[in-house]
Amino acid sequence: MVHKLFDLIKKYDSIIVARHKNPDLDAYGSQFGLYYALKEKYKDKNIYIVGDTNNLNYFGDFDDVSLDTRKESLVIILDTVAKQMLREIDYTYYKELVLVDHHRNDPDIEHDIYIKDINASSTAEIVADMLLKENVGINRESAKSLYMGIIGDTGRFRFSSTTSKTFMIASKLMESGINLQEIHDLVYLETFEDKKIKSIFFESVELTKQNVAYRKNKKEFLEKYNLKSHYVSRALVGQMAGIKEIPIWVNFTYDPEEENIKCELRSRDYEVLKVAKKYGGGGHLRACGCSINTWEETDKVLKDLDLLLEEEK
Hints:
Radius of gyration: 20 Å
Largest sheet: 6 strands, mixed
CATH superfamily of the largest domain: inorganic pyrophosphatase (n-terminal core)
Strand content: 15-25%
CATH class of the largest domain: Alpha Beta
Order of helices and strands: HEHEHEHEEHHHHHEEHHEEHEEH
Shape: globular
Distance between the termini: 41 Å
Structural class: alpha/beta
């Protein structure tokens, strides 16, 4: 499938690289990693990068692409295969469409090629592996982006999805001359105010009967501290991680733009993906998410997580 993708890349003069909404580091990293490598390799082609942006954009700017151009382009979508995770414009207009992902969801998007590796630590790892196998040079900007995608989805190589192949690919990316200290400072250094917010957040963490940790971040909390919902949902869920007594943790956050509640589910050992899928979500076995409509439903999610723990014990 990888070779077929690069045959298509050689065939098209117009290529669009896309990924899911509200991107995390892996979505950004895989997208910009592929984009920078293709721009360097195929200087005579029109290669575009599209999508929304948020506080995790350490990577670059995005292109405005007309519908006429989209209709004649090869579109490559990274890090998701689900319509609900995408802007409609990115999966609707294309000449041919390719999906590249490492999640366990089944695609609900019509496609010409689907490159899937659920054993990969990240979509950035898949992209780096493809570029290496196809002998497409990975320049420093591409390597930096891909490395950032990998550390984002592996928690700096701490999660169980990290394999010997992950380290091998990371070592290949390092050969480009990327500055690890610069990258880690860019991603992980925090302000004093960030630390204060994390302290406030953690003070209100609660536990279920089965020691599932949870936090309900309502509209009032976001407004009081002038916080973006994406930051609270994704960046603060990790504050409940690494605690001996807590096997599962979940972060519920009101999203004013979509007027729903984002649920981020995490676990060290339990397959919380089962619960995320029940509510229309998806992701990894132990790190996934879904969206629900009411705060009453959050109690149902917590009950299902408690049941999961009871069944596994």
